[in-house]
Records
---
Amino acid sequence: MNPDGIDKILAKYEYKDSSLIAILQDVQEIENYLSEENLEYISENLPIPLTRIYRIVTFYNAFSLTPRGKYTINVCLGTACHVRGAARVLDGIRIDLGIDVGGMTADGLFSLETVNCLGACAMGPIVVIGSEYHGQMTPAKVESVLKKYRKTLRKKDEKH
Ligand code: FES
């Protein structure tokens, strides 16, 4: 993001250091992650020590210091999901997307992560794509869900 974009966000929060988390959320929403360059800019302009910003960013799971795709896919590998075949679902996604856990597809559409229990064990195996929960997943089901996401995005691109 260029400095103008960050300045707009800082101005929205009146350059208040008490709004740091909200500022970081807004910046991340645009780029899907927080780059070192952007964090340095925020640090200089609030001003807040960079070490404090990094402490916050690394404390909250919602923040990412590495580039993430438009949709983060979280595969639950908790016990209940695991016994219902979560590992096979994860393998299916890895093959389908051609990336490993922690990776991002070349088109910037998907990132792949794993989690340990999302608190909805009865629906397992669960895969969360963006903010949508998909329960009772199988490798075949997840493949068709991913297809739908790709199709929806293609349609949006065609409109622009
Ligand atoms: S183990 Fe997957 S939701 Fe609980």
---
Amino acid sequence: MDQSDPVPGLFHLSMGAPFLFLCPNTGLRVQATDNGDEPVSQKGTRYLAVECLACRGFHFVDPATGKLMSDSNKK
Ligand SMILES: [Zn+2]
């Protein structure tokens, strides 16, 4: 009946899930999107190469935890 209203609550979840990570160069929290790029596996963890909006560089981030690959290496 109502042709003008689109169905609410319908989102394309497969398009990419946004997540936050901490940029090691600027210390800022940066939002990135898991757009389905092929992740890099390392010891059961999947890292995504994301372009950082804060420092314009690339970081390897685990979209599930927001942790950087370099974080797990040190300490
Ligand atoms: Zn950065």
---
Amino acid sequence: MDRPVRSLRDELHSTAKGSTAFDLGCALDRKASCCEGIGYRLQPRGSLTHAELCHCVQECASCFGQNRRVVDGVAKTCRSPAPSRVVTLINNASLPARYSAARLDSFSNFSGNGREVVQRVSTWMREFDAEKPRGLLIGGPVGVGKTYLLAAIAKNFASRGISIRFVDFFQLLLELKAGYANDKNDAGLLGEMIDVEILLIDELGKGRNSDWEASILDQLVMGRYNRNKIIVASTNYDLKPNDRVAFGTNHLDDKKPSSFDLDRFESLEQRVGARIYSRLFEISDFIELNGEDFRKRSLQEKMQNLRPPRKNS
Ligand SMILES: [Zn+2]
Ligand SMILES: [Zn+2]
């Protein structure tokens, strides 16, 4: 009774092509609250972020989760990249579970220059050109939200169908070392790090800075550099070139550092060497993030709550 009226032409056309009468549209187009229309959901699983296709896509009456449907005899793709592809990319990325909900627009440490940094990162991501890619290095003290930003960036790239790999630099060294001890060569894991489209390195420069570690870093950075591939990284070390780091205070202006943070007394250039530093500098944007250490702040808040309420005298 309530069926919409179709013209004779539509009717003949659809009969000729033998398709169903109406396109219901994909569940993705309805932006259901289950996944806000992205078609997949993320949750912590063990130490990593796990992605899976949302039930709204799996049960879509139009495409049955295939991301493809026939409209008037013509095959149509529901969404590009397919949510199932994004799911695979995220599950191959080794994203830490702690940051599964990270999003640029949910960044909340604005005690320093966070607002400005989020803006700059958004612009950098929007302007990202796979043909002429530019990397990104986020420097700053402990606890200001660098890893959070890295995870948000990783998820954004995955949603655009770009392959990503997230790695903690120190952890990578440990894994390579373990492989070494078991007589395996570095080629497998290291090769994976060199091949992936976007490599995200947390805590770049952390380690003992041995010759072996330096050679790993060299293979990693130069391997990607030679393939025109970028690195997105965070580091606790000072991003400024050596000759501009005022050692001892770590500040070009006369402000004293608010808390003692040993890493900030060394520069990234010192840690990774002039050659690697200059390559990174050449192919990346450098951004300094500053602000309060959110871990310390939340600890202080907890301590505050533990104190008994003051009596009025
Ligand atoms: Zn569908
Ligand atoms: Zn959904």
---
Amino acid sequence: MRGSLLVPTLNEAATIGHVLREFRTAALAANGTLFRDDPIDWETLVIDGASTDGTAERAAAEGARVIVERRPGYGRAYRTGFAEATGAVLATLDGDGTYPATEIPRLVRKLLDENLDFLTCNRLAFLDRRAMTTEHRIGNWVLNSFLRIAFAHYLSSSGLRLADSQSGMWVFRREVLDRIHLTQDGMPMSEELKIEVILHGLKAEEVPIRYAERWGGPPKLSSWQDGRRNLLFLLTKRLELARQARGGGYPIGGPQEPAGR
Ligand SMILES: Nc1nc2c(ncn2[C@@H]2O[C@H](COP(=O)(O)OP(=O)(O)OP(=O)(O)O)[C@@H](O)[C@H]2O)c(=O)[nH]1
Ligand SMILES: [Mg+2]
């Protein structure tokens, strides 16, 4: 089976080599154990936003295929990468060393064994306080609470208990991309992806992971600016769903708005 690891980067030279090596070691080991019967042939795509600190060169030196995406945005980088990925299973994480790359094989095994479509990781389960600033934590709490309330009907129909709407580590089957529709170029793409998975009735689960402090390059996320954008996206998406429900329902084949709302 073929797998694709996708990593968006913007000036992550300090950590990208470590992330890719950690993943490669775990993936090779798992091919002799978890995937002994059908080893995974991994490709690694690093979608680089024209970093100026040598990130692309470091990633290429680790054997990654580097795609330069000059158009700004985390979501833009992923959407470009998704179009290039050839794996039957896709896995994602940040290039800043905060997510546990070593967990990916175990998550792929779970996806296949449990016949799931999509796995998202919960960073908040065992959160070390140093891994997130207070502003980030407050932002996450507001966004998660808003999503849980505004999308309660859709979440309960899907059965997904989504505690961390902003997590950037996912493992999923490539067919998911044929079912959903992504529009966001910035950070809101992360929540858009999960909402689309829920709306289209895909089989999804959230898995707790360890999440570490960023120890390399500068953060790109602005708690207030990105927080506001993420909240605005959730609000717009929810209003759009309500409007579509009034005009005949959304999505095709997915859960419907309850009558009377
Ligand atoms: N190609 C590309 N990558 C980006 C862009 N913005 C962020 N990234 C990368 O996307 C990943 C997520 O961004 P982060 O800044 O780590 O966002 P975050 O994890 O929410 O915030 P931190 O807690 O500070 O790590 C990192 O690997 C970034 O380098 C962009 O505009 N283009
Ligand atoms: Mg990060």
